[in-house]
Amino acid sequence: PAKLGKPIVFAPSTARADAAVIWLHGFGDKPDGWAQLLRPLRRAMPQTVKWVHLRASALAQPCYKGVKLPGWGPFFSTECIHVGGKDYEDADE
């Protein structure tokens, strides 16, 4: 199994969180831009919410001939994922 990179965490202003938002970025992306983009939403939410932006590790991607890109699993096609397709059915070990 792949190991996750260091997440970006915004802890609540209180000692205890009442809720958490766990954000997963898209294929080939990183959490940094999302953390910045979602800043207004974090500020509008109660300060008892903890935000965790996970960071996918770089994996060799079959759809790009083994080039390592951040992803939550291997992608076999650059086409749209659909039910019955290899990317949809793959077990993501």
Which helices and strands occur, and which strands form pairs?
Blueprint: E1 5-10, E2 19-24, H1 31-37, H2 39-44, E3 49-55, E4 58-61, E5 67-70, H3 86-89
Parallel strand pairs: 2-3
Antiparallel strand pairs: 1-3, 4-5
What does this structure look like?
Helix content is 18%, strand content 29%. With 93 residues, it is α+β, with helices and mostly antiparallel strands. It is built from three helices and five strands. A hairpin with a 5-residue loop joins β4 and β5. A three-stranded mixed β-sheet has the order 1-3-2, with helices on one face. The protein is elongated, with a radius of gyration of 16 Å.
Average pLDDT number: 90
Oligomer: single chain
pLDDT below 50 for ≥5 consecutive residues: which ranges? none
Order of helices and strands: EEHHEEEH
Strand order of the largest sheet: 1-3-2
Instruction: Name the helicity range.
Output: 10-25%
Q: Based on Cα principal axes, name the global outline.
A: elongated
Biggest sheet descriptor: 3 strands, mixed
Euclidean distance between termini CA atoms? 7 Å
Q: Structural class from helices and strands?
A: alpha+beta
Query: Into which percentage range does the β-strand content fall?
Result: 25-35%
Number of strands: 5
Tell me the Rg in angstroms: 16 Å
What's the total helix number? Answer: 3
Notable traits:
elongated, 93 residues, alpha+beta, 3 helices, 5 strands
Give a quick precis of the structure.
The chain is α+β, with helices and mostly antiparallel strands and 93 residues long. It has helices spanning 31-37, 39-44, 86-89; strands spanning 5-10, 19-24, 49-55, 58-61, 67-70.
